[in-house]
Fold this sequence. Notes:
This protein is of the alpha+beta class and 170 residues long. Helices cover 37% and strands 21% of the residues.
Amino acid sequence: MIRFENYRLGEHNDVVEISTAEEHRVAARMMAQQCHHSIDIVSRELDPPIFDAPEFVDAAKQLALTGMRPRIRVIVANPEAIMRRGHRLIETAMLLTSFFDVRRAGEEHRNFNTALFIVDCTGYIRRLSADRYEGTLNFNDRRQSQLFEDEFDEMWAKAVPDINMRKLSI
């Protein structure tokens, strides 16, 4: 297993190949804990082994509560499955709606099969197949992260809010 404890967001510019859910989970947690502004996620069903882990959810919540103009955006293809199963990140998003925004993928992206995680437009994790945990990451590649961010923004513009992902407070 790769030792991500030595990696710092914005400092280590190594392309690292990952192949397991555990590697993805640890890297995503480390990036989220070091994040200052934004997290963007594209995931079909918000990968529970990664984004439903208490450590990741705590890091995202910490960003929302203490970050500098924090923004957490999530695009999913199947919100119904996520809501049926339950998900800590979605529960947190429902409580902190000023900082989290979760949308359903638009029609042209409904069948996307790539998983994407971008932090502060600096670090990223990308898997070409959402069904497998093989992918690449980098804690400090602003150019590639910006390309992924542009791809995310295009998907975001076509994504739609999902009423199942909102909590109405009275």
